[in-house]
């Protein structure tokens, strides 16, 4: 879809009605035509079903000045789980480019130089859902990534970006459930690594955190001088501080080795896929009236080697 386009994404998770700090600035940016697509990576409204779904009604009114201008894409988080996701499914419609069926849980499409994938990490709460949906999603994701890596497809869409709610890495811990799986449940992290995912964007933690290129708790920088030029592993980012009733996560004074930068300012991300070799990423701070507090370029002028598992 539009292979020569340079799409611009506004990305965030965890935006609610109460304390929805990012709404005004985001609306302004969207209506100034600064973005082409919004991706809300889980935890909407807080919560869509609350007060007999009146909170969900108000949230839909709040996003109307945004969703009325650009596509408003979603993946579910743990706050959409109630009543088997019924409020989420009845308010949002996601479509996968190569699938004739509507699927609000996992989907993908091509736009400009990027293949975009959304998944539902909440399926890993198997004590509530069993494991059927988890395995169905994994099979779909593996098949989708295999297709995206066919030589003709990867040449046209060299970037792969995933959206999901629950991160693998935090500034002070690692989540083994979503990263490694468990007996009978295969590793998501290995799958993303094997098929050369470039960017993995998460919410859930109410903070902005940029990580070094990381796989299996090891850092794989492109080089010490240019860590994000031809990195040898995916770049993970948490952007979960758009604003909600639960407030923000404080910055850890002694973060783990994977953490490159963190901020507790309210805000959201801008991701611009400039071309086949360059992405520009920036985090806006609502506390500082829309100032960019972190930015970097992800550059790929060499295709990295993928490993088998």
From TrEMBL:
Domain Calcineurin-like phosphoesterase: 8-208
GO molecular function annotations of the record: hydrolase activity
InterPro entries, A to Z: Calcineurin-like_PHP, Metallo-depent_PP-like, MPP_PAP, PAPs_C
Purple acid phosphatase C-terminal domain location: 233-295
Protein's UniProt name: Purple acid phosphatase-like protein
Organism encoding this protein: Sarcoptes scabiei
